[in-house]
Amino acid sequence: MQQTQEPKEYVLKISKIIDETPGVKVFRVDIPSNININFYPGQFFMVSFIDDPEIKVSRAYSVASSPANKGYLEIALDKVGPFTTKLFQMKEGDMLKFKGPYGKFYFSEEMKNDLVLIAGGTGITPLMGIMRYCNDKKLANKIKLIYSVKTQYDIIFRKEIEEIKNYNKNFDYTITATRADDDTSWKGEKGRIDLMLLEDNIENISGSIYFICGPNEFVRNIIGLLESMGIKKEQIKTDIWG
Q1: For the whole model, what pTM was predicted?
Q2: What is the pLDDT of residues 12-69, one digit of tens each?
Q3: Domain covering 114-241 in this structure, CATH number
Q4: Do residues 52 and 86 touch, judged by C-beta distance below 8 A?
Q5: Do 48 and 97 meet the contact criterion of CB atoms below 8 Å apart?
Q6: Which CATH architecture describes the domain 8-102?
C-alpha cells in the first residue's frame, strides 16, 4: 500500500446520502479523477462546511470506505449537536471540505495477524473501512467483528456485514444488542460485551491485533476486559470519543 499523504484540504461534492438506520446517515463524497487521496483504513479526516457564517469549526470523521476504492469517501454519523444537525440538512450536490488523513488508529498490509474488531454504535465506521479493505484486497487475515448496538435496528452496515461473511471465509461477526430483551425477532446476542462473550468469540487470543472504537467508557471497559485475558497493551489499538 502507498504511504499516506501529508494532510491536505479537499473540497468534495456529496454524491449520495443514505439513511443507514433511523438515527444514522452515511455521506458519500466523490473524489475527482484528477485527485489521488491515499490513506490507511481506520484513519479520519477533519470535515467542515464551506463559508458557513455560523459553524466555522471542523469535526473528525473516520472513513468507512476502503482506500482501495479511489472514487469516493464515505463517513457515517448520528445527529448529536449543531454540527451534525447542519450536516443532516445537507443535500446531494452540496460541497464539503475534507482535510486529512490523520490518525494512528489504522490497519496496514504489514499486519499479518488475525484481527479482532470491537465496536460500539457508530464506532463501526473505521472498522468497516478495515473490513472492506481486507475484503477488496483478498488479504489472508482472519477477521472477527464484535459489535455492540442498542437494538437490531441500530446495526450500521448490517446488510453489507452479512454479505461479507457470505463471500469471505476469513470473516465472522458477533453482534450483541443491549436493549433487546423484549425483541423476540432478534436472534443474536443480548447485553453488553463482557468477558464471557469475548472469550467465546476470540479464537487466537494471544496472536491477534485488537482494534476498539466507540465512546470513552465503552473503550476503557473493553481494554480492561482484554487485559484481564492476558492481552498485552501493544496488541491493542483504540479510537475513542466523548
Answers
A1: 0.95
A2: 999 999 999 999 999 999 999 999 999 999 999 999 999 888 888 999 999 999 999 9
A3: 3.40.50.80
A4: yes
A5: yes
A6: Beta Barrel (2.40)
